[in-house]
Automatic annotation (TrEMBL), chain B:
<keyword id="KW-0812">Transmembrane</keyword>
<feature type="domain" description="ABC transmembrane type-1">
    <location>
        <begin position="68"/>
        <end position="252"/>
    </location>
</feature>
<feature type="transmembrane region" description="Helical">
    <location>
        <begin position="102"/>
        <end position="128"/>
    </location>
</feature>
<feature type="transmembrane region" description="Helical">
    <location>
        <begin position="76"/>
        <end position="95"/>
    </location>
</feature>
<keyword id="KW-1133">Transmembrane helix</keyword>
<feature type="transmembrane region" description="Helical">
    <location>
        <begin position="134"/>
        <end position="156"/>
    </location>
</feature>
<comment type="similarity">
    <text>Belongs to the binding-protein-dependent transport system permease family.</text>
</comment>
<feature type="transmembrane region" description="Helical">
    <location>
        <begin position="187"/>
        <end position="210"/>
    </location>
</feature>
<feature type="transmembrane region" description="Helical">
    <location>
        <begin position="20"/>
        <end position="39"/>
    </location>
</feature>
<feature type="transmembrane region" description="Helical">
    <location>
        <begin position="230"/>
        <end position="251"/>
    </location>
</feature>
<keyword id="KW-1003">Cell membrane</keyword>
<keyword id="KW-0472">Membrane</keyword>
<keyword id="KW-0813">Transport</keyword>
<dbReference type="InterPro" id="IPR000515">
    <property type="entry name" value="MetI-like"/>
</dbReference>
<dbReference type="GO" id="GO:0055085">
    <property type="term" value="P:transmembrane transport"/>
</dbReference>
<dbReference type="InterPro" id="IPR035906">
    <property type="entry name" value="MetI-like_sf"/>
</dbReference>
<dbReference type="Pfam" id="PF00528">
    <property type="entry name" value="BPD_transp_1"/>
</dbReference>
Amino acid sequence: MDGVRLQISGLHCGYMTPDRGLVPAVEGVDLALNRNEFVSIIGPSGCGKSTLFNIIAGLLKPTSGEVALDGKEIVGRPGHVAYMMQRDLLLPWRTILDNVVLGPELAGKPMEPVRNRALALLRRFGLEGYENSYPTALSGGMRQRAALLRTIMCERSVVLLDEPFGALDALTRATMHEWLLGIQREFQQTMILITHDPDEAVYLSDRVYVATPRPMSFAGIVPITLPYDRGRDVTMTPEFADHKRQVLALLRGDKGATDALH
Amino acid sequence: MNAQKTNHASFLSRLGDAALPLGIVVALLAIWEAAVHLLQIQPFVLPAPTEIFKELMISGPTVILPQLHVTMAETMAGYLAAIVVAAVLSVLILYSSAFRRGVLPLVVASQTIPIITMAPVLVIWFGYNSLPRIIITAIVAFFPLTIAAVTGLKSLEPHFIDFFRSLNATPAQIFFKLRLPVALPSIFGGLKVAATLAVIGATISEWVGASQGIGYLIAQDTALLNTTRVFASLTVLGIAGMALFGLVGLIERLSMPWIYARPTMAWLRAQRSPQSPAAAVARPRQ
């Protein structure tokens, strides 16, 4: 397919445990991510979604299978995708500005232009005036925005988001959804989101991959045909409800409920 | 302007904090003074605080301070040596499992020997100079420092390492930009304990085979039943020990502004960069 950024094929991964031997965590996962696409992976907790992300990020080697980024094999090679983990993992001893420039700093980039770019983006991320604050001074939503800015500052072609809003309250969460979609459109980011919230998945995504319980594979893919520019109102429409119904049906293992292909 | 006001308010409230322990000390001294006079205790058994103060005025500058100078020089030399040894040991313990399994038990075993009993032997080996005392001071101080540093360097949550690895960080970057900052509070805890131990180590080591130093002076005065001057020396030693402890505490506060983001820190940073707005200065969330 034209414009494929990330291609995962035939991925298998298992863990050795002392009492049960080799336990499979990921079994036969295929995924294709197009340029500027927003894809969600939804599945029950502990189904192996984070294992999949750790493989894509190069932190974990799969038993078999391929992961190609822009046509280049990246299995076991970290640093090629930007990875935002479940907790914000802001470094408490660094100011917000020093936190968000961490990626380029570790890569040995010249820091002057990086810092200037970060200062300019802090406003867009609602963190203006906090550049010299330490993370403890920030609210949960602000911390997540800082963590996302740090992820985007890495300037990778694919961004992995592992339940970034899981710890936020419902109201903050809804605001963050709208904001994240704006950021993704504005900065033309290619993103994969892990979630167990069907509303979050349908609202944010171009396509939703529905995962099975452990060992993880995909029960189906739901293409989201909602308009590209979608406000929060879209969640009240019958179309939104239809998409959500398809996702929930696949989650329940009801394969006949949708014509989506595996 | 507003920040200035907060500074004054905070200074006054800190003065209030200091008033309570100060009051307790004054009260205890008064009880001590009264008890010595009422019970007619001999000065060589327990001198009154006023007598100790008089002795301080008389022999403090001429006798005690020169000896304190010797002891504090040994303390600092031993303390710095302990810091270097602890830094090397903790990195070796952290990164080498062979070292951890082979050498760490020996280091622990060395601490079960009362090191002061080694003092005469060290004098035989290294002679009548300050070197044996610096060695004893270092041996006393390095152990808590090493344990504190290793504990701190290991206290990292694994998520942070995964995060740094996902950014393709080198092992050196993971150490200096992640492990070390995480370990700082623990390391400074060790530095404070080691500072007090270094003063004790240097003083006690002067009881054996020394011809100068405040420990030597205390040993001499004890033998001569000059208890008043012993207490005067102990007072000076206590103040010196607290000063060293306070110095380490000050360095701690300056090294970890993310923990000690108090008005004083805000003031210091405002001096450095006058254009930065005071509102942007971090304060820990309530």
